């Protein structure tokens, strides 16, 4: 279908809430993988130790997706978002450790924001950028596939 200027009219397909939730989950998983790859490349540039991705479990991936979602909805300072991220980890039994050891739930970034090295703060800001663009894309997708859900959360769950 076209309008008078012979420009195609956008066609939006309504999808079920189940399909919508699946697409949202895929978007967040993709964002998590993208963030992990960006962080890996930053570590290469900085000459930092690389992590063997096999040491991360599905629970670690889910934890990173939840952190992305939390960053996406928090419109606060870097320090406040980091505090929320730390709180989430502490509630899951994580503690500070000089090296990342998922099996022992130790993380070197479980320090106050102002005590983190500058490169770690930069990586966290990139993490936030990925999260904010992901939620924007999910919201845009929702508007076009499920117009009645435009106020719905972008977490994959409908209220």
Q: Could you characterize the architecture of this molecule?
A:
With 159 residues, the chain is mainly α. It has one domain. The chain has helices at 17-46, 58-73, 78-91, 118-145; strands at residues 95-96, 106-107. The chain has a two-stranded parallel sheet. Helix 1 packs antiparallel against helix 4 (118-145). The protein is globular. The mean pLDDT is 76.
Mean pLDDT: 76
Radius of gyration: 19 Å
Uncertain regions spanning at least 5 consecutive residues: none
Count of β-strands? 2
Residue share in helices? 55-70%
Structural class: mainly alpha
Tally of separate helices: 4
**Strands side by side in the biggest sheet:** 1-2
Major sheet summary line: 2 strands, parallel
Distance between the termini: 34 Å
Could you say how many structural domains there are in total?
1
Shape: globular
Element order, helices and strands?
Answer: HHHEEH
Give the percentage of residues in beta strands: under 5%
């Amino acid at each position: 279908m076209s309008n008078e200027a012979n420009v195609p009219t956008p066609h939006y397909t309504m999808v079920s809430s189940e399909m919508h939730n699946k697409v949202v989950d895929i978007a967040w998983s993709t964002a998590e993988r993208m963030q992990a790859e960006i962080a890996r490349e930053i570590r290469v540039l900085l000459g930092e130790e690389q992590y063997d991705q096999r040491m991360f479990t599905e629970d670690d991936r889910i934890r990173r997706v939840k952190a992305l979602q939390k960053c996406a909805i928090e419109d606060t300072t870097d320090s406040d978002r980091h505090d929320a991220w730390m709180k989430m980890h502490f509630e899951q039994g994580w503690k500070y450790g000089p090296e990342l050891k998922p099996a022992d739930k130790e993380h070197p970034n479980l320090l106050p924001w102002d005590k983190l090295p500058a490169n770690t703060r930069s990586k966290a800001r990139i993490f936030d950028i990925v999260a904010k663009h992901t939620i924007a894309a999910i919201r845009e997708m929702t508007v076009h596939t499920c117009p009645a859900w435009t106020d719905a959360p972008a977490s994959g769950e409908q209220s």
